[in-house]
Structure formats: C-alpha cells, structure tokens
Design goal:
- There is one protein chain.
- This protein is of the alpha/beta class and 236 residues long.
- It folds into 2 domains: 1-78 and 154-236, Rossmann fold (3-Layer(aba) Sandwich); 82-149, no CATH class.
- It contains 10 helices and 10 strands.
- The protein has helices spanning 41-48, 71-77, 94-101, 108-121, 123-127, 138-150, 168-183, 195-201, 219-224, 226-232, and strands at 3-12, 15-25, 30-34, 56-61, 64-65, 79-82, 156-160, 187-191, 204-209, 212-218.
- The strands form 2 sheets. A 6-stranded mixed sheet has the order 6-7-8-3-9-10, with helices on both faces. It has a 4-stranded antiparallel sheet with strand order 2-1-4-5, covered by helices on one side.
Length: 236
C-alpha cells in the first residue's frame, strides 16, 4: 500500500472538517475523491502534504508514519501537490517556475532530465520557456502547475481541481495528460468536482459529504451508482 489514511480528524478552529476519515491509495493507481464544495476534499490533500495537522488519526506513506512530518520533508519523501487554483509564481518565467518545483533536489543533470520529461508531457511549456507565468492562458498555467509538481519526481501526485475554470476541450487534454503521467509510473490522488471526468480516468473512487466518506468503490461502480449519477453526474 502506497498511502494509508486512518481515522483522520482535522479541525479549523472549533469546526471539524474531517470526521474520522479512512482510505488508501495503492501503488500505480489513480484514486478520485469526489464531492461538493466544502466536502473536505482539499483539506485531505493539505493534510497529507503537511500543510494542516490532524487532531487525531494517522497518515502512512510506504509504511512510514508522516502524520506530523514537515511539508518540505514530505516532498522529499515523494509526495507532491498541485494546488487548487494553480498558484504558479506569476512574476517568474516558465523555466523558473519549473525549477522551483525541484528545490529539494541538487543534481543539476537530473533536474535537466526532469525538465525534459515535463516538456514531453507539456510541449507548450517548452515553447514558452522564457515567458512569465502570469501571461500564460488558464490551460497553460494548469500545465505549468502540473509540470512544476512533477519536477520533484514524486511517487504520488496530489491533484486539486485540475479542470477548474478550463474550457471543455482543455479539460479533456488535461485528463489525457493525467492518464499519461500515471502510465509512466506516478500514482495519483485526484480531487475533482467534474466527477464524470474524474471517474473516467480513475481506478477507484471515494465520495465525500461534509468530511465523511459516504461511498467507495471502483470507478465503474461509482459511475453506475444511482445516487452518484443523481448527485454528481447530472443523471437521474
């Protein structure tokens, strides 16, 4: 098992955001977390990344307890997050943004190799290498955020709402790239409001409501579940 979450309780002040959450990600999988706004999806990713601390519960990555590990150390262990809203460094060039993703690494030749690999997945980034991040289109910024996330060579990539604000044709392109990244050996935990797209690429999924998992199963089972169809897929 690559990632194991057990009985996770996370609070914002007095408000409990996650209520005893347990789930796992196996090596090589794409696992989708779906749910409405405020269900706790981003909170889960931020807790795994070390940006939030749980009050109870544990997070194990490759059998190592990382529950209270600093965020910078978590990146070094092999977990990288692509945050909601991209959060690229707008005043920096595309090249500088990608280099920021490799800040935990020191071997320049290996970093150059990773950049080549990022260009293989995102050819448009190579074309805009010296362009400022803030001048890119929304789709290009999403590609840059994902490329930056891959620069640390993660075993597990956490993707938070990669389709947000993108035109449908770009959404399809981003999800094709997600599948390609996974085929190249990176496991993915995908948070996505576009449940149909998420379940079309995922192996398994979990449905969240107000900080709790209410359904889980294979992506196919969830796509065919009447409750999921009615609530998230726009089908009665």
């Amino acid at each position: 098992m690559l990632l194991e979450i057990e009985n996770l309780h996370v609070f914002y002040g007095a408000i409990e955001a996650l209520h005893g959450l347990s789930f796992h990600v196996d090596e090589g999988e794409i696992v989708a977390l779906i749910g409405a706004n405020g269900a706790g999806k981003s909170t889960i990713l931020n807790t795994i990344s070390g940006l939030l601390r749980p009050r109870e519960g544990s997070i194990h990555f490759r059998q190592q307890d990382i529950t209270n590990t600093p965020a910078s150390r978590i990146v070094k262990l092999g977990i990288s997050q692509v945050p909601e809203g991209r959060k690229i460094f707008a005043p920096l060039t595309v090249k500088e943004n990608l280099e920021m993703g490799a800040y935990t690494r020191s071997d320049k030749s290996e970093i150059a190799e990773s950049m080549k690999s990022a260009f293989a997945s995102f050819p448009r980034l190579e074309e805009r290498l010296q362009q400022l991040g803030g001048t890119l289109s929304g789709g290009e910024q999403q590609m840059l955020a994902m490329g930056r996330g891959l620069m640390s060579r993660p075993s597990l990539l956490l993707l938070d709402e990669p389709s947000m604000g993108l035109a449908p044709i770009l959404v399809e392109e981003i999800f094709r790239i997600i599948e390609k990244i996974n085929e190249q050996g990176t496991s993915i935990l995908l948070v996505e409001q576009n449940a149909n797209m998420a379940l079309s690429v995922a192996d398994r999924g979990y449905v969240l409501e107000t900080g709790q998992i209410v359904l889980e199963g294979s992506a196919r089972e969830l796509r065919e579940n009447p409750e999921v169809k009615a609530a998230y897929l726009g089908k009665a």
